[in-house]
Design a protein that fits this description.
The chain is mainly α. It folds into two domains: 39-145, 3-Layer(aba) Sandwich (Glutaredoxin), CATH 3.40.30.10; 158-334, Glutathione S-transferase Yfyf (Class Pi), Chain A, domain 2 (Up-down Bundle). The chain has helices at 48-60, 99-105, 131-140, 159-174, 176-181, 186-207, 220-236, 251-261, 272-282, and strands at residues 39-44, 67-71, 117-120, 125-128. A four-stranded mixed beta sheet has the order 2-1-3-4. Helix 1 (48-60) links the parallel strand 1 and strand 2. Helix 1 packs parallel to helix 3 (131-140), helix 6 crosses helix 8 (251-261) and helix 7 packs across helix 8 (251-261). The chain starts with 38 loop residues before the first strand and ends in a 54-residue tail after the last helix. The record marks 236, 279 as: Lowers pKa of active site Cys. It comes from Rhodococcoides trifolii. Residues 155-282 form the GST C-terminal domain. This is Glutathione S-transferase.
């Protein structure tokens, strides 16, 4: 096994979805009450699951109550590290790797050390890494600290449809690209490939008729799909062999992806350089040379999408978020 770990399965890739299920809630039912400055969100811009949390935190305006630590784009088989920070230490938690926060709470933690994770600052202990629930709780439990004009990403009337669409997208697209890339047999790869593109065709048809996935505003469902689409041509098409066609060859999906990318909170949290570095350097069993490709050209992400012709109001009755905090700005050389 390489120092980065092995990713390709013997047959079909099965993601471990057993996360730390503690929730941070308004009433503190799990022992973790929503409080400003009590917690730190630890992310890596390269990771699509963490990218979701970055986007939702930004859209809702939680930056001033929930600080954010950013790991570098690569990791070894132990965990993500804070190699972007001075001296390789997170400036708040004072640790070199997120694994330290997991072990502070669970000395024999047996599972993968993942991001995003929320850490209690005072104790240095991880609270949760349950990323699907995490972003929903940002929307529903942290409402006291939402910015003025924060969008409703999980409206009551649409929750069942959001959940249904999000589950299909997770199974066939978000996780489907990994099932292609980490397949250990031709049969497993073929099955994952067919499911992925069947679902992308379904999404292409759906998004040819409506601007957003559910309803006429941006919801949690859009955040979850976007982070995979942003990585599709840069990584998944080649590295994961998801190559029936590129995103730019699917008109509705490509227009939809650009619409979101050009919306504050989406494109300005996306770091293409770190994304490519992560996949092509860490997955040595897929890319033994660790050569990071120079392409694709990113300037097309800023071309007109004309999705406004389908109607819809991106933030509903809300407003776009302000620019990112100065220390959270993506390097302009890493974006479109």
């Amino acid at each position: 096994m390489s120092n980065e770990g092995s990713y390709v399965e013997q047959d079909e890739f099965n993601r471990d979805t057993n996360y730390i299920e503690d929730r941070i809630t308004a009433d503190g039912g799990d022992g973790w009450k929503v409080e400003p400055d009590r917690y730190r969100l630890v992310v890596a811009r390269a990771c699509p699951w963490a990218n979701r949390a970055i986007i939702v935190r930004r859209l809702l305006g939680l930056e001033d109550v929930l600080s954010m630590g950013i790991c570098g784009p690569t990791h070894d088989k132990r965990s993500w590290t804070f190699d972007l920070d001075p001296d390789g230490l997170d400036p708040v938690l004072k640790i070199p790797r997120i694994q330290d926060a997991y072990l502070a709470r669970f000395p024999d933690y047996p599972r993968g050390i993942t991001v995003p994770a929320v850490v209690e600052v005072s104790s240095g202990k991880v609270v949760t890494n349950d990323y699907p629930q995490m972003t929903l709780d940002f929307s529903t439990e942290w409402t006291q600290y939402h910015r003025d004009g924060a969008p409703n990403l999980y409206p009551d009337a649409l929750r069942s449809e959001i959940d249904e669409v999000a589950e299909l997208v997770f199974k066939d697209v978000n996780n489907g690209v990994y099932r292609c890339g980490f397949a250990g047999s031709q049969e497993a790869y073929d099955k994952a490939y067919d499911q992925l593109f069947s679902r992308l065709d379904w999404l292409e048809e759906r998004l040819s008729r409506q601007r957003f996935l559910v309803g006429d505003t941006i919801t949690e469902a859009d955040v979850r799909l976007f982070t995979t689409l942003a990585r599709f041509d840069a990584v998944y098409h080649g590295h994961f062999k998801a190559n029936r066609n590129k995103l730019i060859e699917m008109p509705a999906l490509w227009g939809y992806a650009r619409d979101l990318f050009q919306t504050p909170g989406f494109g300005d949290t996306t770091d293409f350089v770190q994304i490519k570095q992560h996949y092509y350097i860490v997955h040595k069993d897929i890319n033994p040379t660790q050569i990071v490709p120079k392409g694709p050209d990113l300037s097309n992400w800023l071309t007109p999408h004309r999705r406004e012709q389908l109607g819809g109001r991106p933030f509903g009755d809300g407003t776009p978020p302000p620019p990112p905090k100065p220390d959270e700005v993506v390097d302009p050389a890493h974006s479109a």
